[in-house]
Amino acid sequence: MSFLHNKNILLGVTGGIAAYKSVVLVRRLKELGANVQVVMTESAQEFITPLTFQAISGNPVHSSLLDVEAEAAMGHIELARWADAIIIAPATANSMARLANGEADDLLTTICLASNAPLAIAPSMNQAMWSNRATQENLQTLKSRDIEIYGPASGEQACGDVGEGRMLEPEDIVEKLEALFNHQLLSGVRVMVTAGPTQEAIDPVRYISNHSSGKMGYAIAQAALEAGASVSLISGPCALQANNRIQLTHVVSAEEMMTAVHADINDIDIFISVAAVADYRVKQVAEQKLKKHSDSITLELVKNPDILSSVAALDDKPFSVGFAAETEKLEEHARQKLVSKKLDMIVANRVDKSDSGFNSDYNSATVIWGDDSQRFEKSTKSRLASDLLQLIAKHYINNKR
Ligand SMILES: Cc1cc2nc3c(=O)[nH]c(=O)nc-3n(C[C@H](O)[C@H](O)[C@H](O)COP(=O)(O)O)c2cc1C
Fold this sequence. Notes:
The chain is α/β, with parallel strands linked by helices and 401 residues long. The chain is 35% helix and 24% strand. The chain contains 15 helices and 19 strands. Strands 12-11-8-13-16-17-18-19 form an eight-stranded mixed β-sheet, with helices on both faces. A hairpin with a 2-residue loop joins strand 18 and strand 19 (372-380). The chain is elongated. 45% of the residues are buried. The mean pLDDT is 93. The structure holds flavin mononucleotide. Residues 14-18, 41, 43-44, 92-95, 124-125, 129 line the site of flavin mononucleotide.
């Protein structure tokens, strides 16, 4: 499975002669399982029609910033949050200059300023435009802001000149984008992630559970894989598919999850507990389906094992990270958990908002460790997971020193 599978790629197309090649780029990204939204500048539409990109990407093309209808459908901030990565291909000399100046007078430049997703550009222009001091100075400015520069290649140009300035071939751009999601920070490190809800049986047909979809845990497992770790995922019941390079174990109840976690925990370097494990289970599970005889029934609940605490209490404990899903006093409750469970880090997120948290594709979070914390604003779970993994990796590596 490609590292681009399920990734949200925002492709910016600017007004260069190589714009036609970006159709092949979209096609290849789609073949690898990426979701692609195309944003075109006004000039780009003189070179190739939005209809072509719409047909190939399967999504409407975005081009206008000050358009009420477009803004209501998927506005610039939504597109900025949606993107796991932004690639501008081709990137004209003009677009490089505008990015370097921090301009925001069209949809594409505004999205670039509003997004915290990694930004890459594939410059494409005449060799004289490329070697011009103005372009080279803009290039240095963009590099200093950690913008990835893909190419350009050398060779014969559309205008007949020979030299540097050709856009990289779509295949080469795809390869670089894949590498962006495969940064190897945790190469050789063994990571275990728990995800999803647990189900606690009442009788053979009924259970107690919660609204966890598993999306955040699966995204964390994928991000750990992309960081080069070998990943095992212990998952409660959910309808998600994990990358086939992740070692997946399915469990149902909290007790089963506890057993699965401890079966392998001695081989684990980083344990990330994302699962929404039921705090209680039914004391006496009925052997047969309960019948509707009386107006009310009472279920006696007993406490489930605290899997995360049990891992963090091990003599040779792995670097332990918890998730705190809270509906109030987010930081206060999360900090208490960090201390009482003896964790290395805790990721606190609110689950009482319909547009983020449980079930949603979006989330925001505050990560807390020691006396410090870092806030991550709302983005896709995949993007957030990638940011969280980089922070976790940094602290894990520092801890080992
Ligand atoms: C036929 C033609 C081809 C062009 N090709 C390029 C090109 O490959 N690279 C480039 O930087 N500019 C090229 N330009 C100039 C850009 O289209 C122009 O700078 C435009 O303002 C770019 O707008 P944008 O960056 O907002 O898309 C070309 C112009 C014409 C008329």
